[in-house]
Amino acid sequence: MGYGFLLLLILFHPFLPHSSGKPSGVCVSQGGRFAPFKSEGSPPKKGPKDLTLCWVFRKKTCCDIAHTHPALLSVRKLASTGEASQECLHLWELLECSICDPRVGTRPGPPLVCASLCERIFEACSNAYFSMDVKTQLLAPCGVNDFVCGRAAEWASNGTDLCAAAVFE
């Protein structure tokens, strides 16, 4: 391979799909703990009527119940065994639902969220209980079957760390 091929690769790099993590305009499955989008490769559209959470994005989303139901369970665990405040529950729901934002669901990789949101979540949820999920090794609200639970402030030192531990960037 000569320099010509490398030059072509550099010139066409901006046109390669998902090369820079920028939105593609079509649904791109996030991977990791998130279920694949059924609408993979299609633009975000009106969500199904059976969304169990994340209704704010129902007019335009890549999500379906496979994404909103786990988010609902996460918020429920935080409410029932995590001893979270109302503000913590509200902000955690926003975080869990961020994957359903059409601007997030069209980017490859972990969902990108604002650092300021992560800091607000950390402040509101620092006294709520979380655990490290055995299967995924990700931070999640403490549930009745978890053996080791600790306050968010024991698992993370700031909002960025908290969001990263829950697989949000």
From TrEMBL:
Superkingdom of this protein's organism: Eukaryota
Keywords: Disulfide bond, Signal
The keyword Nucleotidyltransferase appears for this protein: no
Pfam families: Folate_rec (PF03024)
Folate receptor-like domain segment(s): 41-165
Residues of the signal peptide: 1-21
PANTHER family from the UniProt entry: FOLATE-BINDING PROTEIN 1, OS02G0592500 PROTEIN
Name of the protein in question: Folate receptor-like domain-containing protein
Phylogenetic classification of the source organism: Eukaryota, Viridiplantae, Streptophyta, Embryophyta, Tracheophyta
